[in-house]
């Protein structure tokens, strides 16, 4: 890769290769500074963006940031690239592509048709030229709909993952959190438990509990125990009632090896879940989580900035037609996203980039207690994301995950967003809430009456 250079105000800036150009064009974030990749200041950052804006989009097909021979994610990106879908923008520079995305020509239909033709590097590059408002405006035009027992991503809807984690996987504690969440109308995206143990018997026990709950109350929901894909495969072999296969993924082969997975194993998990045919309104069976900084934390970033590596993870997810994908945006900590400004920006970037690539994106609006952020900042991010058309968010009791030790959203937060922006749950789940008399005549969640509580506690 040859060097890139520009002279601004009499000073010449040189970027030794495309990796350096992309990293220096990124908004400031602590992870890139930790890796020694970030711009040395705003003047260099602006210079990099000037150069990037003039770069042809096709350069990313000709100059892989991670070597093709050494990385199966790069091979996946290039070998599955849809040249016909790419054709409408193939003559554009990165800057022209940004202008087009913000134009009337970039309709919901046009963006859906374009998605298979976009590589993650193209998408990451254009996001680096966008303000936060641009990221919101472009994402709001993207619509990605998936389904299993409920349909996620329809216009005017906001789904929620109900996350009833417990530090000892105590069934009674988990059940209390689930009941509390259901009474607030949560759980239409998934009821998903992060298990405290990676034991296969414990995974099966939790799956059985969730399925008994679903059947007893006839809830049109999908459940997931967020165990490693190998544990999900063992659970399926033992006849467990598994709906979704979960896995954390990253943007390079080496980083995925750190998670104990590769593309072949993910395909095996997908095919095993599909063979169960448990979906009623759709067949999307995969659930992926990502997060900026995961490749860097595994020393598997190949000198590429953390946001671009994050978007490369979306190419992995796209290959498996998932029901749900979410970035756990502030979970890794301030070493990668230092404060609320960086967390908010990263959440908007991840959501927009995932949607442009055709993914059903959600966001865990969250932070760790040693980051320079608080719940007011999460209020800001969740409101921006809801206006950007996020498919789903994650909520935990009281916004405090006592098992994973981080701060997220509460049931109240999601309910408030739905009221504020006139967003509704997934249609199948909304119909269930009506049958359970949890919605009033105007379709609003009402305080449960005695009859409702007796039915739920039976």
CATH topology of the domain at 146-450: TIM Barrel
CATH class of the domain at 146-450: Alpha Beta
- What CATH architecture label of the domain at 146-450 applies? Alpha-Beta Barrel
Determine the mean pLDDT.
96
Distance between the termini: 67 Å
Largest beta sheet, briefly?
A: 8 strands, parallel
Rg measurement, Å: 22 Å
CATH homologous superfamily grouping of the domain at 146-450: Aldolase class I
Query: How would you classify the helix and strand content by structural class?
Result: alpha/beta
Anisotropy-based shape: globular
| Strand order in the sheet with the most strands | 7-6-5-12-11-10-9-8
Helix proportion range: 40-55%
- Count of strand segments: 14
Number of helical segments?
Answer: 22
Proportion of residues in β-strands: 5-15%
Give start-end ranges of low-pLDDT stretches. Answer: none
Descriptive account of the structure:
It catalyses: ethanolamine = acetaldehyde + NH4(+). InterPro entries: Aldolase_TIM (IPR013785), EutB (IPR010628), EutB_dom_2_sf (IPR044939), EutB_N_sf (IPR044941). Its cofactor is adenosylcob(III)alamin. By secondary structure, this protein is of the alpha/beta class. The protein has a domain at 146-450: TIM Barrel (Alpha-Beta Barrel). It contains 22 helices and 14 strands. The strands form four sheets. An eight-stranded parallel sheet has the order 7-6-5-12-11-10-9-8. A hairpin with a 2-residue loop joins strand 1 and strand 2 (11-15). The mean pLDDT is 96.
